[in-house]
Specification:
Shape: rod-shaped
Helix content: 40-55%
Strand order of the largest sheet: 1-4-5-3-2
Largest sheet: 5 strands, mixed
Distance between the termini: 70 Å
Length: about 140
């Protein structure tokens, strides 16, 4: 079996494992394995193929690490309006219970709301800041 075939098989295996685990860094290593396969097809020695795999794969991992570090982390699903359309909606709180909760009618059902810690509860319109299970965390408007 040709050396390039072995490298291509290793790259394919790395991609399959990446697809089953969701580890994006493994895909970067598969790029290094594919580069080694190309080096083998071009007639490079085994040592050169190993160096190409290490440099390209390792370089891709390091590059992705720094690219990923520049972008802020995505908001959690409970506070992300793209995931949960309740975020940012307005509810009207008529009165608060002694335990810091209230019940409001929202989307045709009764919901339990909680005020954000540090903000005193007050009646009136509130904006949904987060959904925690079946409770709405609200801020005063």
């Amino acid at each position: 079996m040709a050396e390039s075939t072995i490298w291509w098989l290793l790259a394919g295996i790395a991609i399959v494992v990446e697809l089953t685990t969701g580890t994006f860094y493994l895909l970067m290593l598969a790029i290094g394995l594919a580069a080694a396969a190309v080096a083998a097809q071009l007639g490079a020695s085994t040592v050169t193929q190993l160096l190409v795999a290490a440099v390209v794969g390792g370089g891709a991992v390091v590059a992705w690490y720094f690219i990923r570090g520049r972008h802020p982390a995505a908001a959690s699903a409970s506070t992300n309006r793209d995931v949960n359309l309740d975020i940012g909606e307005t509810v009207n709180v008529e009165s608060w219970n002694p335990d810091g909760t209230a019940t409001v009618k929202y989307r045709g059902a009764n919901w339990t709301v909680m005020h954000r810690p540090g903000n005193p509860p007050s009646s009136g319109p509130h904006r949904v800041a987060e959904v925690i299970g079946s409770r709405l965390l609200v801020d005063k408007i």
